[in-house]
């Protein structure tokens, strides 16, 4: 298929008042498919289409104009070709394509998109960001694949995926699913004897999320449910030390070669379980004590739940909220000194789509320019040289060392002084060092939940991105 460059502004023409009831039923259409990929090339093949219960998303904000994600899909009415739904999202596949393995290997990933169940035949079209544009320009979307789906096909549409039932914990019920953000908490590595711990963990990390700005200002905008999903064994896989567990969701450490990166590739099982209740976002609590987690925009988050070191519980809470920032608002990692497995994750000369990362330090064109005071220097000096020297030494510490936490604290205490500069606190500028790159990439603030392990909130730019997403689901 010939790839056609598209712009999100194309979809703005359909932003006139739409009647949900004219186009959709109250249920959810779930489309499962396979993405077969290698570096720079991929193909999509259809797997199955399901009808799930009540659609949990907004019934008015059907068209996505936020321009987030490395992928995008549209739903068009087959007869009129009008776009009636669209969403941006990210995938495991896109991340994997930035690893060394993808340079010489093809892999297959199982993925899902969900949208309100249409009443008439539709065209589902997938798009992928392409970095072929010029220096300093944002990546645009290119058409990748399209499928025609008839929702009235009684043979093709499966309606059996939600027969299995799980105990539902109503942690926060603040109103109708169509004007709230519906967060679903699942657990992996919790055996039957661990269900008491899961209930406590689900409540605790809900409380943690709503203790952090700006989420604490929007607690009433969320519904939070948890499903009791029982694994055969406690804990999850750690391939690097040959630990294998029989778990319900198949999460594991060592994703893409990173010891601390926790993800699952068992998408079908995850969706079958999650689809038994209405949800917008999924977070997976992992019953393990090795530091780790993961978060992919509009897919899911993971987080370990128990610290291996007494007194380090705050570290677990940090990971949970940090990863949720990725999944919920498409926030990028602002740190740059930790080990990663990616190669050229952000192509040179291409502006990242993430709202809190930028290749430019020009106050007139940087994406968060409206947040920068006139007297703030851009780029913004912040003690980077001293910070980098401390981080270089800290990176040499071994987490397996019994004295690791004591040694790490020596460096953290010194970096905290740099990151607590009273002249820069709450100031938005262009701070060099972000997105895994020490130079040529900028973040909005000195410190943020997306940058360091410090007990800080999201910076003003990240907070604004979070609030825009909340508005998308509550209006």
Task: Summarize the structure in words.
The protein is α/β, with parallel strands linked by helices. It contains eight helices and 19 strands. A six-stranded mixed beta sheet has the order 11-13-12-14-16-15. A five-stranded antiparallel beta sheet has the order 1-9-7-4-5, with no helix packed on it. A four-stranded mixed beta sheet has the order 6-2-3-10. The two termini are 37 Å apart. The relative contact order is 0.12. Mean pLDDT is 92; it is low at 1-5 and 8-17.
Protein traits:
475 residues; 6-stranded mixed β-sheet; 5-stranded antiparallel β-sheet; alpha/beta; 19 strands; globular; single chain; 19% helix
Count of alpha/pi helices? 8
- Sequence stretches where pLDDT stays below 50 over 5 or more residues: 1-5, 8-17
Multimeric organization: single chain
Total beta-strand segments: 19
Assess the beta-strand content as a share of residues. 25-35%
Biggest sheet descriptor: 6 strands, mixed
Residue-averaged pLDDT: 92
Q: What order do the helices and strands follow?
A: EHEEEEHEEEEEEEHEHEEEHEHHEEH
Helical content, roughly? 10-25%
Radius of gyration, CA atoms, in whole angstroms: 22 Å
With strands numbered from the N-terminus, the spatial order across the biggest sheet is 11-13-12-14-16-15
Secondary structure: elements and pairs:
Layout: E1 5-6, H1 20-23, E2 24-38, E3 41-54, E4 71-77, E5 83-89, H2 92-96, E6 107-118, E7 122-130, E8 137-138, E9 140-149, E10 157-158, E11 168-172, E12 181-188, H3 195-209, E13 222-227, H4 267-274, E14 281-286, E15 293-296, E16 300-304, H5 313-329, E17 350-351, H6 384-394, H7 404-419, E18 428-434, E19 437-445, H8 460-474
Parallel strand pairs: 3-10, 8-17, 12-13, 12-14, 14-16
Antiparallel strand pairs: 1-9, 2-3, 2-6, 4-5, 4-7, 7-9, 11-13, 15-16, 18-19
